[in-house]
Specification:
Strand content: 5-15%
Radius of gyration: 16 Å
CATH topology: Rossmann fold
Number of domains: 1
Number of strands: 4
Helix content: 40-55%
CATH superfamily: P-loop containing nucleotide triphosphate hydrolases
Order of helices and strands: EHHHEHEHHEHHH
Structural class: alpha/beta
Distance between the termini: 41 Å
Shape: globular
CATH class: Alpha Beta
CATH architecture: 3-Layer(aba) Sandwich
Strand order of the largest sheet: 2-1-3-4
Amino acid sequence: MASQIMVVGPHRSGTSLMAGILHHLGVPMGPMAPKEFSHPESNPLGQYEDDRFVRLFDHMIGNWRDPEPWYILTEHGQEAAKRAIALIREQDEKYDVWGLKSPQLCYTMRFIIRYLSDPYVIFCGRDFDAAVQSLMKRDEFPRQVAEHIISRCTVALLHTRGVVQDQGGAGAVIFYEQVLEHPKEVVTALTNFLPIEPTELQVQRAIAHVRPDLRHF
């Protein structure tokens, strides 16, 4: 039985950083190369996103800036959901443990968790105002727009945490500031929480991946 590691959190909450740590710990995070990212200025170390899932999630919830969770009930959304389920099964057949990171999981996790055989969910958090300012800088959004996006993601995340708990999934909450201040302790906690056995070299690379100097806010 495969295990799945889901990295869930609002935009600019450290999901890319967490996914990069998992990558260095030996967790397959998708077929894309680590340096293939959309925002090199805001994510210079990479986003570590599986673009196949990201595109399907976009079709499941609509525009990421103002998603409509009910959209999955439409014919278009249902077709995307079926393809996402098929992709989950494909990953399960390929790996004993694999990971997935996407802010859209705040909305889609509640739908796909029933298709995960052994989910481990890492909920990423960050100071609200810092996340808002980071999103404003990355996409040049007005504050009201950035606050709306982060607020909706945060509310959806809280709901998703309840769904994961109800489904019996294993969950851990890790804050961005915590990772930057105590990377060694966080990496150690991750190796104890997750069904992985990284080498010492992988652990050291995961710790070194944390770069507080790249923080914007």
